[in-house]
Amino acid sequence: MITSIHSTDLSFNYNTKTEVFNNHSINLEVDSSQERKLYGIIGPSGTGKTTLVSILGGQLKPTTGQITICGTDIYAVNDLVRRSLITMQMQTATSLRGKLRYNMLFGLPEEVKTSETYSDDYLIEILKMVGLWNLFKDKDQLNTLIGEGGINLSGGQRQRLNFAGLYLRSKHFQPKIILIDEPTSSLDEVSERAITQMILEMSGWSLTLVVAHRLKTLDEATAILDTSLVDSQKSLNFYTREELTQSSAYYQDLMAGKALLDD
User: SS3 string of the chain?
Assistant: First the structure.
């Protein structure tokens, strides 16, 4: 079975002066039996990385063009259907509130939240994996209050908690695609390694697209989309590293240490 993302005549502008895409196309087809379905998105700031993820995730409707995932127009279906197709995490965890357990299970069906699968021991295991359990184990544990917007947590802690929720949702729904924007931008090296490994696991069950802050997050990626090429190419292509070395001056600078990945 093939997992596909298609769009033609894709255009998007925030206003009359800020045009991100102009009649671009995207055609990505991946065999679902592929062991690791990890694909990266890189590029300088302002070249449309987050915008593209938001469009693919159904959050920003393009000015023109359709987005189809496995033949389904994601802007022509309701949230329930879209959730079976897409699971996503953006940079900012805006929905954090209430207790720790509530935030980890947010977005899962009610009958799932109370099942034996999502026991306290299992949730604690996930928190250990993302390097958060030590923060809560001597407080009220899974009943610890997070605060509105995660005000009681640092940026990196919010990011890790957000990712834990993404991992649980994606494992349950096993959607067609997983979209992740900057999963490790605020993390230390130990946490980054753990989350990178979890991303690899997720790419085993779903096509996983990651906007990367650090190239090593994409060490196992099959191919990479470089948004520095948006102005020169109308097709948003995913290239191997060898192909990027030939076609992208930005990627060449990254490899030579002359450029850094932007947030």
Answer: CEEEEEEEEEEEEEECCEEEEEEEEEEEEEECCCCCCEEEEECCCCCCHHHHHHHHCCCCCCCECCCEECCEECCCCCHHHHHHHEEEECCCCCCCCCEHHHHHHCCCCHHHHCCHHHCHHHHHHHHHHCCCHHHHCCCCHHHCECCHHHCCCCHHHHHHHHHHHHHHHHHHHCCCEEEEECCCCCCCHHHHHHHHHHHHHHHHHCEEEEECCCHHHHCCCCEEEEHHHCCCCCECCEECHHHHHHHCHHHHHHHCCCCCCCC
